Amino acid sequence: MSQIHIVLASGSPRRRQLLDMLSLPFSVVVTDADEEIRPEWTPARAVEELAERKLAVALSRIDVPDTIAIAADTVVVVDGSILGKPANEQEAYEMLARLQGRAHEVYTGVAIYNMKNGASRTFHEMTRVWMRPQREEWLRWYIRTGEPMDKAGSYAIQGIGALLVERIEGDFYNVVGLPIGQLAVILEELGASIPSLQNRA
Ligand SMILES: Cc1cn([C@H]2C[C@H](O)[C@@H](COP(=O)(O)OP(=O)(O)OP(=O)(O)O)O2)c(=O)[nH]c1=O
Q: ipTM of the predicted structure?
């Protein structure tokens, strides 16, 4: 397969690290898409729509024609309410207080477009996370570390937030912001050659 240029439309350092797992060279375009969610959207639709919005902004800034562009969006869902990134420390506390001691869902939507042949795919994955209860002082201390402030649902499963997590069902990396296993399969279907998949049986 010919070399195709990959662009990740994301300012998230986590998504860059996850895409690095594919051993595929890629470049990054940071987008500033509007992240407003319409109240009638289901969580699955919300993450897919937001990923497509980020992708559309990125596509308008890419001038290499042989490019596959990828964008993603992650939200946390509890009792049907969609939680994005907290606006301030008080909101982070309210989110964490709501999530602790119970289960919630993490949805990541991914939108991909192959500019070479016009092929596109949008999909989402859901991971269920069960959290331990933690004391108010611990939650306040955790917020002061700064870790929750740029994360959907106000925690990072890959960081100190792991101390809140009892168990998960589904793809761990989907919680971190990119369902990398499923993304690799779909990128191949869309014409990318993935070095990390070459040695399969
Ligand atoms: C729940 C959870 C979320 N997150 C992160 C993943 C996403 O980066 C972030 C959700 O915000 P997003 O709006 O999905 O992404 P972003 O603003 O960080 O980056 P961009 O839009 O430029 O791609 O929360 C974790 O890192 N760990 C977790 O455990």
A: 0.98
- What SS3 class is residue 4? coil
**Cβ(11) – ligand 1 distance below 6 Å:** yes
Query: Which of the residues in the chain have pLDDT under 70?
Result: 1-2, 199-201
The SS3 assignment for 164 reads: helix
CA of 76 to the centre of ligand 1 (A): 10
In the predicted model, what is the mean pLDDT of the chain?
A: 94
Rounded Cα gap, residues 33 and 103, in angstroms: 30
In CATH, which of 3.90.950.10, 2.60.40.10, 3.30.2350.10, 1.20.140.10 is domain 5-197? 3.90.950.10
Ligand 1 centroid distance, CA of 4 (Å): 26
Report the 10 Å Cβ neighbour count for 40: 7
Question: Within the chain, what is the greatest distance between any pair of CA atoms?
Answer: 55
| Catalytic-residue membership of 150 | no
User: Does the CA dihedral 14-18-23-25 come out positive or negative?
Assistant: negative
Q: Is the pTM of this model over 0.90?
A: yes
Read off the pLDDT of residues 111-170 as tens digits, 9 standing for 90 and up. Answer: 999 999 999 999 999 999 999 999 999 999 999 999 999 999 999 999 999 999 999 999
